[in-house]
Amino acid sequence: MEMDELLACFLTERKSRQLLITEYEAWLNNIVQMSSKKLEHLITTNNFGYRQNIQNTINLELNNRISIANLEVDKLHTGKFLLCQVISKCVKLSPLFTLVEDPEGNVERIALYNWAEQSAIPVKSRKKVLTIFEASEFLPIGTKLVIKNPYYQIASSFNAIINPNGPSTFIDFDAIIRSDNPNDVIVINQNNELLNNIKWSNNLKQKIKEANKKSAVDDKILSADDFRQSGNKYFVSNDFAAAVDEYSSGIKLDPNNATLLANRAEAYLRLNQFDKALNDVEIVLKNEPDHLKAAFRKGKALCGLKRYQEAIVVLKDLDLKMQINTDNSITPVKQSTKTLLKHVEMLDSESRYGKYDYIKIIDEFCEKVKINQENDDWVCETGPRLDHADFLIGDIEVRPVKKKGRGWVAKRDIPEGTLLIASKAFEIVYGNEAPLSYRSIDFTSKTMITATHSELVARIARKLIAEPDLCQEVYKLYAGPEIENLGENSVDVRKIEKIIKYNFFETKDQWGIMNSTKENSRLTKDSGAGLWIMPSFFNHSCVDTNVEQLIIGDMIFLRTCQPVLSGKELVLSYCSPLGSYDERSNSLRLHGIKNCSCRLCNLERSESKKVKLRQTEILRTYENSLGPQVKSSLFSANFNSSLIKELTKSIDELKDLRKEHLDLEFQSFNIKVDLAAAYVRDGNLRRSLPVAIEVYKFVKTAQVPQFSSNAAYQVASRYARLDKMKEAKEWWDVALKELAEPIRGKFTKEETKWRKEAMYLAEKLSPKMVSGAKNKGLL
Ligand SMILES: C[S@@+](CC[C@H](N)C(=O)[O-])C[C@H]1O[C@@H](n2cnc3c(N)ncnc32)[C@H](O)[C@@H]1O
C-alpha cells in the first residue's frame, strides 16, 4: 500500500472496538510467550522520575471533553481532554501502553511517555522489563483517567514494536493516543463529579486497591524529620524524584529547615534541575551563610546553569573558608571543592576562549562509549555524554538568509580551521536507548519518524516539564511552516516533534568505536539522534560547504574548513555529496528541504535526460554486477584482470558525461576505490598509486573528512610497498593530520611535537591504521 493510500485509510476507517481488543490481547500473549532473554534485549530503563498524579478535584469544563471518535489524526488537541477508563492490562516498554475506552464505548491504544510512578518500581527492577502484571499495577483495569491535550498519531502497530527492526510495511501502523506530559495524565477518583451520569459500556469491576501505601501513611501525622528520613531513603536508592517529593512535604511543615532544603537541592542537582537547586541553597545560605554543603551545592548549581564565573567565586570563597577550618570532618568537602573548582575553571576557559583539551575529551569519550557485552547497555551509566562547556565565537551571528529562513553568517573574515561553535546536546538518544519507543508517520511531509526520534521527543518533553524556562531555547528553533504557536512555556509534543524533524543531527560514530565494541549491536543499526541548539541554525549545502562538523559523544564541534569572508553564510552538509541526486533529495526532504540550490544539485537538475539515463545505467551496472564481481575476485585465488578495464571504462565515461564540471564528478568514488584495490591485487602497485592519490583528492574536494585519513594512509602504504619510504612517510604525516586536525584544529608551524599528539589520537581512534603503518615501517 502506498503511503498516500494508507494515510487516507486512517482518515476514513477506524478499526472496530472488537478488532482493537482482539489484537491487543494477542499482543499481550505474544509478550508473555517471549523469552525473558529476548525481552531484556528490548528494554533500557524505567527510571523516569515522575509520580502518579491522582486528583480528586480537577478544573475541567465538561464541554471541552472530546470523544475518541472525534480525535483527529496528526493533531494535538490543545485545551481538550479525554475521559476514559483502562480496559486492558498494561505493557511498560519505553512508554506505558494500554487500551482505553471512552464513555461512548470507543476504544483506542494509548502510549504514556514519561509516566510511571517511579517509586512503585523496586530499585533493582528499574533496568529490567517489567512483567505485564507489574506494569498493570500502574493503571489497573477500570482506572478512570483524564488525558489533557491528547495527541493522536499514526504509530507502529504493537507487533511491530517488539520487532527490533521496527515496522516492515505501512500496514504495520495503527492510530495511537500519545501523551508525554505526566501532568496531563490524571487518575481520577471513582466518586469524582466528572463521572456523574456517565455509564460505561464496559462495566468493569473496580480493581484499584482501595488502601494503597500512601493512604496508610497519610493516616499518621508525620513530622518534618520523618519526611527527611523517608527522603533520604529514596535518595540512597537513587530515586531522586521521590526524594524531592518527601523533602518537599517536610519543607511545607518547616519552610526554613536547612537540612531539608540542602538535601532537596542535592536531589534536584541529580535530576539536573539546577534552577530549583539554586533556589533551595540560596534560602539556606541566607539564614546560615556558613553552611558548607549548601555553598558547595550552590557552586554545582551555578555550574549546571553555565554561570561558571559565579560558580568560581562561590567555590573559591568556600575553599578559603575551609582553609582556616581545621575540623577533620570537613576534609571530604574540602577535597570535593578543590576538584570541582578545577573542573569549573576548565569549563570557564572552554566557554570563554574555546580552549578544549581534545586529548582528554577523546579519552573521556573512549571510556564512556564502552558497551556491556551482555545487555547492550552502557558500562558508564550516562553513556558517552561528556562534561564540557559550550562555546560560541564572537565572529558569527544568526541573520535572515535568502530562501532559507535564518542562518549563521560571518561578521568578519574567518581563517580556515577556526572553531566556531562547540555545543553539548540539549538532549540525545542513542540507538541502544530507544528499543521500545515506536515509529510514527509525519502526515504533512509523509515521512517516517524513527523510534529514536520518538524517544527524543519524550525526553525533551520531560526536560521541558522539569524546567519550563528552557522552552524558549527550544521553541526558537525552526518548526516547519505549518506549526501554530502554543503558549511559550507549555510543553507541546507535536511542536517538539517538528523541531526535531527539522533540526536533528544524527550521532554518527565516525571512528567506528561503538561498532567495534560489539558486533551487531543495535548501535550499528541506528546510531541515534540529538538536538543541539546553536548548531541548528546552520543551513545546508551539498557541496562548497565552509563548515565541518565533528560529533564526539554528545558534544558537537563546528569548524571552518576553508577561509570565510565577512558577510558570507556559513553552511554545512546535512547529507553526503557522494550519494546520488535521488538519495540526497530523499535525505534532504527529511530535513524539510525540497529543492537544494547548491552547485551540484543545480547541475544535476540541468543535465539532459539522455545523460542522466546513461549515468544511471553505468552506476546500476556497477552496483549490481561489476562491483560485486570485483569484490569477490579481490578475495579469490585468481584475480580476473579484465575487470580493471571495465572499471576504468566506467570511470572515464562518467567523467565525459560531467563535461566541464569535473570538480563535481563524485559519482565514480566507489568505482575508483575498487580500481585502486584491483590494481594492487593484480600486482600493479605503480598503476594503483595515482588512482589512490586521486581517491584522496576526491575525498578532499567532496569534503567527506571521515574518509580522508584512510585515503591518505592508502597512498602511504602503496609508496611503502614500492619502497619509496620518503614519500610514504610524507603521506603518513598527511594521514595523521587528516585524523587529528578535524578534532583539534590545524597544527601550527610552531607545534613541533604535533606528531606525538596526532599519534596518540590515531592509536585511540584508528588502531588498525596505526598497526598497519607500523608493519609497513612508516613510524
Ligand atoms: C536546521 S534548520 C536551519 C536553520 C533555519 N534556516 C532557521 O531559520 O532556523 C533547517 C531548515 O532550514 C532551511 N534550510 C536549510 N538549508 C537550506 C537550503 N539549502 N535550502 C533551503 N532551505 C534550507 C529548511 O527550511 C530546513 O528545514
Automatic annotation (TrEMBL):
TPR repeats lie at residues 224-257, 258-291. Transmembrane segments: none annotated. The keyword Protein transport does not apply. Gene3D superfamilies: SET domain, Tetratricopeptide repeat domain. The keyword Membrane does not apply. Pfam families: SET, TPR_11. SUPFAM superfamilies: SET domain, TPR-like. Keywords: TPR repeat. PANTHER family: TPR DOMAIN PROTEIN (AFU_ORTHOLOGUE AFUA_5G12710). This is SET domain-containing protein. It comes from Rhizophagus irregularis (strain DAOM 181602 / DAOM 197198 / MUCL 43194) (Arbuscular mycorrhizal fungus).
